[in-house]
Amino acid sequence: MMNQVLFAGVIGLFLTLIGTPLLIKLLARKGYGQYIRDDGPREHASKRGTPTMGGIAFILSTVAAYFLSKVISGESPRYSGVLVLGLMVGMGLVGFLDDYIKIVKRRSLGLRAKAKMAGQLIVGVAFAVLSLQFADSRGQTPASTKLSFITDFGWTIGPVLFVIWALFMILAMSNGVNLTDGLDGLATGASVLVFGAYTFIGVWQFQESCANGETLTNPGACYEVRDPLDLAVVASALMGSCLGFLWWNTSPAKIFMGDTGSLALGGVLAGLAICSRTELLLAILGGLFVLITMSVVIQVGSFRLTGKRVFRMAPLQHHFELKGWSEVLVVVRFWIIQGICVIVGLGLFYAGWAADK
């Protein structure tokens, strides 16, 4: 049963390693290249025309890896995994439309803001509503109307507030990854680390599930999660697929993920957090995305209130580029920050389990 986690990761890695260069050739032949801001660091001008919409590669590879791992292991797909994958594909589709209009229609801002928001809202609401359905024999649904950190809190917010909360998480993480995706390999590598954390969390929750009864290591700290192993399979597939994509996306990038990839990754991170009952923990596990998002909020807020900018340029990674750091230096140091966030997040996750002994 546990083999499917390994199968998913290996298949995802293999598919993007061989599939991404094929996508690069296809996009290059069609002339689907990246638009580069004129007000950004000068070094980025050389990236103009690099194939984008690379998120297609790891989205398709993740979906294929998930279902192939199920076929190989003889296990059936579970509602939680399918819903989270559906959220990823839906958000990826919104991002694809945005990229397509930018590149093919030559409209630099892509989808109109209202249309883009409407697409994200439709996908997010559909996920939130469906995640409260499909109760198992123990009455557990993929999501819960309770807020969660490392497990659910003891009080509920109700279905309406849950949908609003889920939408906030999905939009916040999607835009967080989107803002982070400004340097070669930065968002991809950071995402690999978070998906690795969620692979561990899913496996741990499966082993310590309340459904396992007498075999529990710590009966006082079991997890009420609908399909924890299935979430681990999804996270492993994503980790492998993003690692394979990173081979081609790292500096100098042969392809960019585009909004297709960044919105999909942000959405699926929120979906994993919601279904694994680690909603607030995601702010720590995905700390780099939160940090970069806050840099934009601070920059915009400061300029509107005082007319002065806190950073040379936002998002934060471009501030350090303009200070003279090389792109690779920024990326590697930001990966280190993200790694620390994951270590702290997993430490808190384990400490919460151990404290209930």
UniProtKB/TrEMBL annotation:
GO terms for molecular function: transferase activity. PROSITE patterns: MRAY_1, MRAY_2. It is a multi-pass membrane protein. The chain crosses the membrane at residues 6-28, 49-67, 79-97, 118-135, 155-173, 185-206, 255-274, 280-307, 328-353. Its main location: membrane. Its cofactor is Mg(2+). Belongs to the glycosyltransferase 4 family. MraY subfamily. This is Phospho-N-acetylmuramoyl-pentapeptide-transferase. It comes from Streptomyces thermodiastaticus. The lineage of its organism: Bacteria, Bacillati, Actinomycetota, Actinomycetes, Kitasatosporales. The gene is mraY.
